[in-house]
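question for whoever is on the cluster today: can someone run the full assembly for these? two chains, 227 residues total. i dont have access anymore since they changed the login thing
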Amino acid sequence: NAGVTQTPKFQVLKTGQSMTLQCAQDMNHEYMSWYRQDPGMGLRLIHYSVGAGITDQGEVPNGYNVSRSTTEDFPLRLLSAAPSQTSVYFCASSPLAGLGNEQFFGPGTRLTVL
Amino acid sequence: AQSVTQPDIHITVSEGASLELRCNYSYGATPYLFWYVQSPGQGLQLLLKYFSGDTLVQGIKGFEAEFKRSQSSFNLRKPSVHWSDAAEYFCAVGLSNDYKLSFGAGTTVTVRA
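^ ran it for u. tokens below:
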């Protein structure tokens, strides 16, 4: 199993550009989530999904959209990038039953918005 | 409000010395508790977790953590630190009926020779 994969690893955008961060998992996990990591603030939840076709907002959803058309994929879209969205983004997944809240993380995408 | 606090932003420890990282939480019920480690430029790796039962939990890489209900704490310990333990450590908390995790701000550990 590849686990949780994220692409790209690095990205530089100009203010106002749009892009999609990709996340995929091959563990058949129902729960997937996106976090952003900023210095001194830990990880903050952006959006999450408990299954295909179901998404909900986390702690910091503004400026981000998500969709979940399949169990495997959970892309994060920035419609109009802002410098405040410069961050490291992590995708995570978890079985909906069994292991409680243990989450498996991808390697991260480092995004810089100029 | 629910919260997770890691009081120490940065800890420096000598190789071979013991290490303790503090984590306090504020939740209405006993939560699920986790410690994750993030090595430089890497993603997060689970060190250990506590759901119920024995309050002293063993994890990978020689780490252990103790859940103390009376103090709302879940401190991480290692008896003898190796240079490879230099990393950022995150405490995370969740509830049994909610799959979201709340993370502390993290503690950066520097290991000196």
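summary bc i know u wont read the tokens: Chain A has no helices and eleven strands. The first strand of chain A starts at residue 4 and ends at 7.
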